Amino acid sequence: MFVMISAVVLAHFLALLSPGPDFLLVLKSGIRNKKNNAVGIAFGIAAANAVYIFLCIIGVGEILSRSIILMKVLKICSGVFLTYVAVMAIKAKRADYNFINEAVTDDKNKISIQQEFLTGFISGLTNPKNLIFYLSLFSIVLTETINIYVKIGLGVWMTLLVFIWDAFIIFVLSKDTVKKFFSKIAYYIDKVAGTILGLIGLKLIQGTIFEDH
Predict the structure, then answer these.
(1) How does 172-199 read in b/e, with b if 16+ C-beta sit within 10 Å?
(2) DSSP at 145
């Protein structure tokens, strides 16, 4: 059992290291917002992951993953959301990034921790890969021989690891030396990240609509 759980924990950690839409959103928030507010997106993403982990533990995750309509809705919602984030990033002007090196930011440039939480939560919740990923991982340990407390403990650990990893990225980006470096290229990073997110979003929408054709 120990080897099995260790393998699941390792697979989960390696998945966190693989850049995806959530990582790009954390990167965008980290270079555009104050650390105390940007951490909201880490909370949001972790909360969304916790929802899917809980659903998998109680057995609802498998039912949801088999619902073709629900999975299509999730994919389309995810595509629309990522496309919206991309449009906002692409529309941003160079002057919008001037605040990164300033000690005090204008109110118009501040994004509250609540807004960041909502962005992270929606991103994590509308990403169908999260449900499928956790369902795949938990299928290894969701057996009658595994104690329910072990499953809950594993779920709590995974949720904390998601938050710690995203918060760590934000913490690193908040360092003055790192921030100064990123302030010079933040405009371009936001455009590239936005474009990638937009392409992912459009691909999700297109693939979902035409997947049966």
Answers:
(1) ebbeeeebeebbeebbebbeebbebbbe
(2) T
User: What Å distances lie between residue 175 and 40, 168, 178, 183, CA to CA?
Assistant: 18, 11, 5, 12
Q: DSSP characters for 68-127?
A: HHHHHHHHHHHHHHHHHHHHHHHH--GGGGGGGG-SS--GGG---HHHHHHHHHHHHHS-
Place 90 in a pLDDT band, splitting at 50, 70 and 90: confident
Tell me the two tokens of residue 4.
């099995």
Name which of 140, 136, 112 is nearest 43 in CA terms: 112
Residue 212 has a pLDDT of: 55
**Residue 119 near residue 49, CB atoms below 8 Å:** no
The total number of residues shown for the chain amounts to: 213
Q: Kindly report the number of other CB atoms within 10 A of residue 116's CB atom.
A: 25
What whole-number distance in Å separates Cα of residue 1 and Cα of residue 3? 5
- Using only C-alpha atoms, what is the Rg of the chain? 18
Instruction: Compute the distance between CA of residue 94 and CA of residue 52 in angstroms, rounded to an integer.
Output: 38
Note the pLDDT of residue 142: 63
Instruction: For residue 211, give the 3-state DSSP assignment.
Output: coil
Q: What gap in Å lies between CA 204 and CA 78, rounded to an integer?
A: 8
Is residue 105 scored above 50 in pLDDT?
no
- pLDDT (average), residues 173-196: 78
The C-alpha atoms of residue 126 and residue 175 are separated, in whole angstroms, by 31
In the three-class reduction of DSSP (H, G, I as helix; E, B as strand; rest coil), residue 175 is classed as coil
